[in-house]
Design goal:
alpha/beta; single chain; 171 residues
Length: 171
């Protein structure tokens, strides 16, 4: 028996810390990554599926917009690390593909994007360095996500940082 899905996290919510293994066997800790820069957490249903492959190709092909001095991208599914490695090798994905395989879907559940059938829906969360979600988008499994709002949210992170620097200079 599975528990009922919770509502997805939204803007202003604190992101749960996560520790997952990537396609190369490395361990990713959200809290450690946030010490360096914001993190875009991209949940997707399945490796090797059509829409997921297209979305992650979009990230791969414009990686500088998703992984740079201000933000790091990680993609999360309930697939095993072995499947993620095979998919990353085939597609040339060099950003972290994180496995939420066991305990099955625990991180997707914590973000409120675990489907009742045991896979992650298309949830996208921009987590600021303070651990607070700055932008979120959740799509049904068959609905391709639009990253346009993400680009605006990253620009707002730059504005927030500039405002903070300006405020420190004037105090």
């Amino acid at each position: 028996m599975t528990s009922a899905p919770s509502a997805p996290l939204g803007v202003g919510d604190r992101a749960p810390d996560l520790t997952l293994t990537d396609q190369f066997g490395g361990v990713f800790h959200l809290s450690e990554a946030l010490a360096e820069r914001a993190v875009l957490v991209v949940f997707y249903p399945f490796a090797f599926s059509g829409i997921c492959t297209g979305e992650l190709r979009d990230i791969r092909d414009d990686l500088g917009a998703f992984d740079n001095a201000d933000v790091q991208v990680v993609a999360v599914s309930c697939d095993s690390t072995f499947a993620l490695r095979a998919w990353a090798d085939r597609e040339g994905y060099f950003f972290p593909l994180l496995s939420d395989f066991w305990p099955h879907g625990a991180v997707a559940r914590a973000f409120g994007v675990l489907h009742e059938r045991g896979f992650a829906v298309r949830g996208t969360f921009l987590v600021g360095r303070d651990g607070v979600i700055r932008w979120a988008q959740v799509n049904d499994p068959a609905e391709r996500r639009d990253f346009a709002g993400y680009r605006e949210a990253v620009a707002a992170l730059d504005t927030d940082r500039a405002d903070a620097v300006s405020a420190r200079r004037h105090t």
